[in-house]
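Write out this protein's structure.
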Amino acid sequence: MGDKMRQFGLVIFGAIAGVMLSLNFSAVANKEPQGVLHPLPVEELRAFTEVFGRIKNDYVEPVEDKKLITEAINGMLTGLDPHSAYLDADAFKELQIGTQGEFGGLGIEVSMEDGFVKVISPIEDTPAFRAGIKPGDLIIKLDDTAVKGLSLTEAIKRMRGKPDTPITLTVVRKGEAKPIVFPLVRAVIRIQSVKSKMIEPGYGYIRITQFQEQTGENLAKAIDKLFKESGGSMKGLVLDLRNDPGGLLNGAVAVSAAFLPEDSLVVYTDGRSEDAKMKLKASPEFYLRDTKNDYVKRLPAGIKTVPMVTLVNGGSASASEIVAGALQDHKRSIVMGTQTFGKGSVQTILPLGNNTAIKLTTARYYTPNGQSIQAKGITPDVMDELAKDEVERLREADLDRHLSNGKAEDQKRETEAKGVPETKVAPKPGVKPVKSENEEDKNKKRESPAEFGSSDDLLLVQAISYIKENASKRATAKVEN
């Protein structure tokens, strides 16, 4: 069991973009880098050393060897996919701290695109979120410094700083004629991973904002609280994973295990190395460090059968997609909302010398029924037809150099190579298509989205109605029988 947990600890989610503004990476591992397995490409290395020498001799200003080599490593990793990266000593330290749910920054998850910092998603209850930063925004200036020409790491370091210090972000937004200026104040970001409340008697609501070390345990406390408030007669539960960028893998397994039968397959991974091939199940060895304190086993028995709806959107990624996919495949919960982000790749932290490391994509995630999450996401059973701005939302498939879906795209390439027309995949049974909108329909939408979990949250209202309607249908069917 100890070996399994050590292997399990290697796996992380980059919370969507692989690099967050606060450098709040998703997990940490203790694995020494493996030795070289393949012969080195002599001609390419000769070209590298020649370029290195030319820069040292002919560049307009002197450049330190360390800077050149570090930038070469950065380029080698960022050229692979949006989530692989080199972690210098500061970034590696922040990674180890970041999983605790408290870190410094503005609260933005970001990636790099065309030389600018692109916002993947603002984190709830943070300075960036409250200021109105949106997914897809391109940050072009930090105070008076142009972002163009900076590496992502350099841009992040400029955005970080002591709490209560100001910084001004200049943003280009699609549909806006001029750049938008956001004066922000840095803060210590404290994320409450699990929020819960009773919507109405017998109907509970649980929102997970991010998957952290304590998410599973905090979820168990929330479930216990809701069951006690309902007098032990829960009629329905809504699990809200909208805009949840992911986090720790064991958190995703723990959340899934709370609702699924023990030993149910939650997710499996597939990659080139044996370490990258894993089957993760709803059992303590896959979500607990200390198996003596199994909070899932102490949950009310009714949590395994209470009618459920899981809410997702284009901001649901990584761990969120694993949970939604597992609950959907096992027919434990109806999934409602819009297509998820599609972050279905595994990143492993490989420590190097001098307290540095690389974050390397090593595998893809697959749902229990064998569907690859990568660059596709989870398709809801019931589509949210009034989702605002979901069509324009940035997703994994929109990122430069994103990893392919795997099975589906490999099959497509094979059929194209053989000259066989691609087989069209039939819509998932029960999936309701998104209705096309005219301008009048669009104008009727809210100018700004309602707060998740509020009385104005139309998707939550729809979810509760769905649970009630289906309960009524089941009751009618019993009477008729």
